[in-house]
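Q: Is it fine to ask for two folds in a single conversation?
A: Yes, each is treated on its own. Send the first.
Q: Here.
A: Result:
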Amino acid sequence: MHSGFFNQLLLISQFELKRFFATRKGLLSLLTFAVVWYVILRYPLRFAADMLIKGQGFIEGSSFFDFIGLSSLHHWAIPEFAVYWHFALFIFPMLSINLAADQSCSDRERGTLRFIALRSSRDSIFFGRFLGVMLIQMLLISMTALATLALVVYRDATLFSAALANLLAIVVNVALAILPFTAMMAVLSAKVKSVRQATLWAILIWTFLAAIISGLAHYLPVLDFFKCLIPGYQIADLTKLSEWKTLQLAYIPILQALVLLGLGRWLMVRQTL
């Protein structure tokens, strides 16, 4: 790969950042995201964290959090990050399906993708858009994690140094969790011609793939290995881990993303623009 490829890659990823942070549509999405997360941080996260701090969720070996499937919350040293970890693991992958849907399909629909391809390689377009969308999502993850850190420091400023390690662990792991979802949308965006189609196909494929593989694995345990094909299948196991132990499963989303990106690149090269 020559320097021209990396220059094109950076320019296209920068364009994605500008499209999100400097356009009316992008700013509206950012405002909606901020309002939703404000509500989450202000109410359910603070409520659950307060219960953990006061020990109200734990009674004689059983707890309210065991009942709702969040028994691993007490494994975290800082309650706010324990609750944030569970919210982030489920919200950001779902957000990724919507946010990463328009990597190239709308340009193909308008006919501008052919014009862009005259000045950039298809590889730089495909990977540049993917990189740009990943950077946007990492910024959003970091913003919400920093907001959670602010809540922790507001409660007890002496926790700041300990909270930084938790903050980094969460940002890294949530970013890894959304990798295969973003790559899946890159594949679909390289194939279909509209954002709506990409989103619908993602939901259908993800839902039916999970249902079919899980059903087959239930009757034929030898097929349980194929659950690795389902983006995000490790998330349920991630919720049982805490802090840097969560990196034990990092290889799963990385491998999934590499396979999906390889497929997407193959489609992009052969697809009619």
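Q: Second one now.
A: Result:
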Amino acid sequence: MEKRQELYAGKAKSVFATDDPDLLILNFRDDTSAFDGERMESLERKGMVNNRFNAFIMEKLQLAGIPTHFERRLSDTESLVKKLEMIPVECVVRNVAAGGLVKRLGVEEGRELTPPTFELFLKNDALHDPMINESLADTFGWATPAQLAEMKSLTFKVNAVLKQLFAEGGLLLVDYKLEFGLFNGEIVLGDEFSPDGCRLWDADTREKFDKDRFRQGLGGVIEAYEEVGRRIGIGAD
């Protein structure tokens, strides 16, 4: 597999072309950001930790029958993925009240949400990823009703798999976001799944083991990510 030119550099990952038009290389960098990029920092080992974490989760989801863009991990910080036509709509499931939901609705942080909530956000940094609905997505051509229905179905399938996985490690999957794209006309899970894009709390103490440690200045960010990995069985190479 030949790595070619950089196609895109996001806040924490870079995307490279390969000699296969259907495959890309994701490079997980040590960069961390919060508040739409207003706060940026480099955290040692972060790229390696998130690359390994993402590979482990994607393989678990594939075994559960959920289609993903993940092909294989290439190195400490790089993975090979399918090239998707990305849908600019993020799917968010919340199992426990935290973050933006608490701010918007004034509900108590830590309240269990039964059933879990499902929300859609437009992926647009300039607009701070505004919340949208199915009607807006359809009207503006961001996603069709059929695509949205499949994305919602897959998002809840992910929830069933990962809630159990993290529970076995003594962790609560509080909430998470997913991104999807099209590959040969099929809806496929893209981007990544790591503590950067979800909230994970200790089930007993409610200690935070996710990127809120960076957002809230709690420290020990990468150590927390590594602790999650140990609890769910991600071993070192």
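Q: Anything structural to flag on that second result?
A: Two points. The longest strand covers residues 171-183. The CA atoms of residues 133 and 181 lie 18 Å apart.
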